[in-house]
Amino acid sequence: MRNHFAAIGGTKLSEDCAQKGRALESTGGNANKTMRPQRLWDHLVSSMICSKVHGYQEVPWEGMPIPRGMQGSLGPNLYKASVRGTPAELKDIMGSSSTTSWYSPSALCQCEQDLDLELAFACEATGEWDLAGDVRWCALLKDGFSFLIRDSRWPGSQWFFSMGVLGGVAGLGWPAKVYKAGGVSYFALDPAATMESIKPLFLHSIDNWRALPFEWQSPLAIALAAKSGTPKGVGALAMPSGKPEALLTLCAKKAFGKLPKQALLFIAKETGAPWADGDTLFQRLEKIVKHLLPHLSHQAVLDIMAQRLKVTDYITEFFLTEDVSDMVTKDQEEDINKRKEGMATASASQEAFKVEFRKKLQAVRKAAVSQRGKKNEIARAGQVRGPTPPPAMSDDTTEAQVNASMPENFRVWRDAYNSRWQLIYNKKRVKSYSWQLYSLAGAASRSLQEAWRLHKEFGGLDPPWPFPESWGPMAPAPIDSNVSKGAAASSTD
Fold it and tell me: Is there a domain that residue 253 lies in?
């Protein structure tokens, strides 16, 4: 099998073909035998892998005209492999050579060829041939940030959802369709988009691109906000959460997603931000953010940097709880173990970033306390305001009562429609606790405990008062072999 399929790329289609071939070799009287190429080819054709499994349209070859002068030379078995009398043209295709005598690119290589042509057309339309040599700005679209983008050079140009990066050359843009509800404009993926309207987005002229941040809203949330029905035939919609601004500026506010240090070096050189060969990821990111957003305070810069801390895998954490673990199937358990391994790897790679973040955060807070002349007890709490001891939790506990005991930048929202307490950090939801699973009072106490655990993880101190003993220990930290149980790695989006 390795010889017969040596020239085929590692795609899902080729993997399925190899699986079919191995099954043929191990069934009946074929065990421990090497199949002839014609036999394998015939088996794959009769299995109809392309049409039935992968959805390719079957070519109506029987009705196709035969080129002039070749009617008598091809024979009836041109498109069907037979063990004997296989045409030479088909034998050439079924050869075991690792190279071919014709151009046969993989799917990725073919994509790059098409993108080169699209880039040439784009440069011809704008006359910016000198910018075609560097397309690395498309890395800004790699993580699929929650924003729409468009080229500001064309008035009223189309907004696009970023669907990722194609071949390291361009971003893939899906046209956005506008829906109105309650006087507010919402966006959704245009269901009528065609191959012509779904296009590559070349960002070599980075200053011309604008971005519009958004947050996904459910149909129920839209109906409640608009006090009317939602657009028919659509699901969740994207609601703008800010005003359009320069793409580079918005990416800086989002800490450039998960871009590695080398990609940040390119951004530093292109924007004129200071940099050095020995910069760590934290140092390089901090310099770029301060350079692009010079009006921000030290604390605001750190709030942006906090987005780089590892996001807790709450899905895995949920499946590991005592109430759910007994219902996990064997297949689900394997998936959970893989996610746990990925969490440990990500934690190990970001530990240095976390250490630098904590040191910087503590230094900034210490300087702020010193400048304001606060007393030592306020410095110990790590708060500009003093949190009050937690209230006696009950079904009548209000948001204001719980928020009065929250650390800085944290708050809770009593989500009556979904029957849960939502924990918010810097205007972003980081976790929620169900009333049905923990009770209303229990969900509120768990939210408060989780907020203080995250606060300590972000460089803050312990609460200035103990939690009631009736609450039990603090909420369990995410699984992480590199940190202690009470201070596991966590973060926000």
Answer: no
Q: Evaluate whether 49 touches 16 at the Cβ level (below 8 Å).
A: yes
Q: Please indicate, yes or no, if residue 282 is contained in any of the structural domains.
A: no
For residues 189-202, give the mean pLDDT: 85
Tokens matching residue 198: 């779904």
- What would the two tokens of residue 426 be? 């810097």
How many beta carbons lie within 10 A of that of residue 409, not counting itself? 19
Q: What is the total residue count of the chain?
A: 493
**Do 62 and 137 fall into the same domain?**
no
pLDDT tens-digit series, residues 398-454? 888 999 999 988 999 888 878 889 999 888 888 889 888 888 888 899 999 999 988
pLDDT confidence of residue 412: 92
Residue 334 has pLDDT above 70, yes or no: yes
Q: Measure the N-to-C terminal CA separation of the chain; round to a whole number of Å.
A: 45
Cα atoms found within 13 Å of the Cα of residue 478, Cβ hemisphere only: 25
Long-range contacts (CB closer than 8 Å, 24 or more residues apart) made by 281-289: 281/352, 281/353, 282/352, 282/353, 282/356, 282/357, 282/360, 283/356, 285/255, 285/256, 286/360, 288/252, 288/256, 288/264, 289/252, 289/255
Q: Which helix (H) or strand (E) holds 172?
A: strand 170-181
Distance, in Å, from the CA atom of 26 to the CA atom of 39, rounded to the nearest integer, reads: 14
Number of H helices, E strands in the chain: 17, 11
DSSP 385: S
- Residue (of 322, 384, 368, 356) closest to 459 by Cα position: 356
- pLDDT value at position 288? 94
- Which residues are paired to 174 by β-bridges? 161
Q: Are 273 and 287 in contact (CB under 8 A)?
A: yes
Q: Are 44 and 171 part of one and the same domain?
A: no
Does one domain contain both 483 and 350? Answer: yes
Element (H, E) at 431: strand 428-434
For 214, the enclosing helix (H) or strand (E) is strand 209-217
Contacts of 374 (CB under 8 A, 6+ apart): none
Q: Is residue 410 part of a domain?
A: yes
pLDDT tens per residue across span 229-268: 667 767 888 989 888 999 999 999 988 988 888 889 999 9
- The token duo for 176 is 């956005």
Q: Is the pTM of this model over 0.90?
A: no
Across the range 24-50, mean pLDDT stands at 75
Which residues are bridge partners to 411 per DSSP? Answer: 424
* Helix/strand/coil for 412: strand
How large is the C-alpha radius of gyration of the chain? 29
Query: Alpha-carbon distance 220 to 222, whole Å?
Result: 5
- With tokens 């203080």, the residue in question is 452
What's the domain range around 52? 12-93
**Confidence grade of residue 384 (pLDDT, cut at 50, 70, 90):** very low
